[in-house]
Amino acid sequence: MQSKARYLAGKIIELLLTLLVVSWLVFAAFSIIPGDTARVMLGPNASEAQVELLREEMGLNRPLLSRYGSWLLGLITFNPGTSYAYNVGVGELMAQRLPVTIGMSVIAMIMVILVSYPLAIISARKPGKLGDQICSVIGHILFAIPPYVASLLLILLAGSVFSLATVGNYVKPSEDFFGYVGCLLLPSFAIALPKIAMSFKFLRSSIIEQRTSDYVRTSKSHGLSDMKILIRHVLPNSNVSSITIISIILSDILGGSLIVEQVFNLPGLGRLLLSAISRRDFPLLSGIVFYLAFITVLLYFISDIAASLADPRIRLK
Amino acid sequence: MSRSRKTNPTAYRSPEASAFYTVGFILLGIVIAAFLVSLFWTPYAPDATDAASKLMAPCASHPFGTDNFGRDVLSRIMAASKYTIFISVAGVFFALLLGIISGIPAGYYGGITDRAVMLLGNSIMCFPGILLALVAVAVFGASVTNVIFALGLVFAPTFARVCRTGTMEIKELDYITHARVMGVGPVRLMTSHIFPNLIPQLLPATVIGLANMTLFESGMSYLGLGVQPPDASFGKMLADAQAYITVAPWLIVFPALMLIFYILGLYFISEGLRVTLAKGAKR
What we know:
- The structure holds two protein chains of two kinds.
- Chain A contains 13 helices and no strands.
- By secondary structure, chain A is mostly helical.
- Chain A has a domain at 98-279: MetI-like (MetI-like fold, Orthogonal Bundle).
- In chain B, helix 3 runs parallel beside helix 10, helix 5 (131-140) packs across helix 6 (144-170) and helix 9 (234-241) runs antiparallel to helix 10.
- The longest helix of chain B has 37 residues, at 73-109.
- Chain B is elongated.
């Protein structure tokens, strides 16, 4: 019990420290921007007095530390300032776009699990045989296709072979939930493909490793069927390592969705991010970047805790 | 590594590894050949427009077809391979440099140095995908140099980890203790006793790094935040081709294939290296 509490406390301290460093990195990146932000926003025709006024309004004249303090406070209280370009709260803008990004990530993750588990189990049954080798080669190829290239190829395939035209029609979940899921299927599949390959590879080698261990041989000699050994013993043990892999995959999926949204013309966080970049909208940009990193840090934290619950030996390392 | 090669020639004859190497080097060779030839000759000038031959399907005079400005796709692909190769090599070199000078001391000294380096590295790794590189380019402007520095920074923690773990293992070995007793200083220990023995571990990481960096670079170029026009890059070519996806699929297929060949070739070589090194370690 004590080791559990100590492990948790250590992990929480690590989480907070990481978040602190992440906030430094984001803030530093936006504080060393070359050029005068107020001048950039108003354009070259604005008078010096106007620029000065805006600078004062945005707090650019205050010392760096006080700016960092109020910026961080805003982030923690989920009130991260107002976007220059949209003149709307950053939180509100992000909340509008979140359904697309989160929806795509969830659907992609479900696809990864649904496809990679059965394939890995089948492949690992007879490692080195033809089926296994075919799966592995396809896995390598899928792994090498960037998600946005996969999207383009899928659009090409869907358009010319199946004559489907689902690209670019976003349906809000509040209007038609199935339409919403439907329009996210193809982009989610494009993001999921390389991750299916990744998850397959890790699961397969983890299952093969477990199957050659002593306890499996013992169970077999006790007369348990292969299926029972797999479900009761091998899979739970492989799950421990796959918890860590899943958190990495989720973070990659989140990053991949940023680009794929652009291909499918979906109004998600990625589009918002790009528009913030092109308009040099730094409050919006720093908000998106920080919260996306925040989600990832949280994912890693949860996966560490989950792995330690599944395998108490991790806590002793 | 060189010792095990002499004493253990069979380690290099694993059929699995040689299959990976063969396919990997063929795929990579196609891209590198395109790059090398493009330095001296391309069928047409990569950015020469021709109003008379817009969106031509692949034919004898334009084997890979032409784009919406009548530019020859083959010539543009050849020119684009230059940026793909250059950015991935330069970026990985920069990342390796950062990773080595932070990872080896972190593993060697341990304690607070280790914690500080790992905390910084983990924090950088918390930005999903290309987010951090996009921010860096957003702040400093899109150019080839900035893309290299940004991606180098993003990939540095991966190499730092490899160096740190490797150093922690190696520093416990007898020959390091022996060298230390002989009066070898920490800097010399790290540079000429530990670093050379990290190379077998760094090699596959470097090859995978090249592939992953290409994934990121082409994604950034696709978004218009990487290689800037009129210079050709695979990502930008694919972005421009998207508008013509139904009328001119060759604009998508050929750049995509070249990109995949490069990345897949590197992955296969790294798999081969992994098999070879694992076999070498077993013996």
